[in-house]
């Protein structure tokens, strides 16, 4: 059995997780999902880094995935974040996402452990074999400290349920170098909003986005222009959002994007320690960018 490939394209929102009184704000989250779909987003990613997955309990994590699937109602794919630096935990979360009705799993490279390339291969192979569910590998050495090489990704592409890669290295050569080695065609997503158009021009298929929490319609329009091969239009639309892409990373994400969403009355600004709200200067900077984009 082999998972279908090339089904996951366009812009997927790496969803924030609203909190209220220390708990997941279920109504705000589902309202946010509905708004995202109404605005034309292509897919949803609950429980990623932007969703503060490291500080969600197992029960909360599972509940957020379930809430997302329930709210999406099959209208767009749900790519549930299920990664962990414990292989057993990643298998458990991936099996849950499958049972909950998600379309695929986004599995980050194990962080802190610093596995070798062989360890990375065995980690993903174990999840592939145990869950038998479409897996998008998330390569983000800036947070995980390990870089999954093209050779390892090519080797992983031979596994039946490895369907894609989210690349957050910022290296625009990756679509070329990986495509030259992969054993089957993988869905290639940029993990950085700032490189979304250039990544697609190099052969990528979309972006898993932080900025689409704030401007989902515009992000979807950028990806639609890329899909149509109109990179001049895509770049024009993209450039309008460059200040947003920049300011949403003025501090550790998701603190800036959650503050921006709170200004738009989409959620509370609440974060879980060790993350804290942006400082006063950065809050002002975020506010000014949103005003210039006519979002406030």
Could you please describe the fold and organization of this structure?
Helix 4 links the parallel strand 6 (104-108) and strand 7. This protein is of the alpha/beta class and 296 residues long. The mean pLDDT is 95. An eight-stranded parallel β-sheet has the order 4-1-10-9-8-7-6-5. The protein has a two-stranded antiparallel ribbon with strand order 2-3. Helix content is 44%, strand content 13%. The radius of gyration is 18 Å and the shape is globular. The chain has a single domain, classed as Aldolase class I (TIM Barrel). Helix 1 (26-38) packs parallel to helix 2 (58-72), helix 4 packs parallel to helix 6 and helix 11 (255-263) crosses helix 12.
């Amino acid at each position: 059995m082999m998972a279908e490939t090339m089904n996951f394209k366009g812009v997927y929102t790496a969803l924030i997780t609203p909190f209220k009184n220390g708990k997941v704000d279920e109504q705000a989250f589902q309202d946010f999902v509905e708004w995202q779909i109404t605005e034309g987003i292509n897919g949803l990613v609950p429980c990623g880094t932007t969703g503060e997955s490291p500080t969600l309990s197992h029960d909360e994590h599972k509940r957020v995935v379930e809430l997302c699937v329930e709210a999406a109602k099959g209208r767009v794919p749900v790519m549930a974040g299920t990664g962990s630096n414990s292989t057993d935990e990643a298998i458990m979360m991936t099996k849950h996402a499958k049972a909950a009705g998600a379309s695929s799993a986004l599995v980050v490279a194990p962080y802190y452990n610093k596995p070798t390339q062989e360890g990375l291969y065995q980690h993903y192979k174990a999840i592939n074999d145990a869950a038998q569910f479409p897996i998008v590998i998330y390569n983000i050495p800036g947070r995980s400290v390990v870089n999954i090489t093209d050779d390892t990704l090519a080797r992983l592409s031979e596994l039946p349920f490895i369907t894609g890669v989210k690349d957050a290295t910022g290296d625009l050569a990756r679509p070329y170098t990986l495509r030259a080695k992969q054993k089957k065609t993988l869905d290639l997503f940029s993990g950085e909003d700032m490189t979304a158009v250039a990544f697609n021009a190099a052969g990528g298929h979309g972006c898993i986005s932080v900025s689409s929490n704030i401007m989902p319609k515009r992000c979807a329009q950028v990806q639609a222009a890329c899909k149509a091969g109109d990179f001049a239009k895509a770049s024009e639309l993209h450039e309008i959002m460059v200040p947003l892409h920049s300011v949403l990373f003025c501090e550790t994400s998701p603190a800036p994007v959650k503050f921006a969403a709170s200004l738009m009355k989409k959620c509370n600004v609440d974060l879980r320690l060790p993350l804290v709200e942006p400082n006063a200067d950065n809050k002002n900077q975020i506010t000014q960018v949103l005003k210039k984009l006519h979002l406030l």
